[in-house]
Amino acid sequence: MKVSEITLDVLKQYLRVAGTADDILLKAILAGAIQFSVNYTGLSEMDLDDKPDMPLAILALCSDMYEVRQATVTGLQINPTVAQILGSYCQNFL
Fold first, then answer.
1. pLDDT digit string, tens, across residues 26-38
2. Per residue, what are the HEC states of the chain?
3. What pLDDT is stored for residue 93 in this prediction?
């Protein structure tokens, strides 16, 4: 699977979400997870498709975004698996 192949149905299956009540939210979450990955790594969306483990990172980010919907941020806390996957492709070194 490639990042570009993650559909709303794939995301809903991963999250175990039934029905259509959250479809608009889930579409926004998927777009946000992809954009977060682009910003974090410095790769383009097309480049994400070349990374075989990137769909897992996107789905895990979506899960975190869906399950934790709060406005308060106490610090950047990213899933360790996601951090490892994104970090291995990161081109944004300062």
1. 999 999 999 999 9
2. CCHHHCCHHHHHHHHCCCCCCCHHHHHHHHHHHHHHHHHHHCCCHHHHCCCCCHHHHHHHHHHHHHHCCCCCCCCCCCCHHHHHHHHHCCCCCC
3. 64
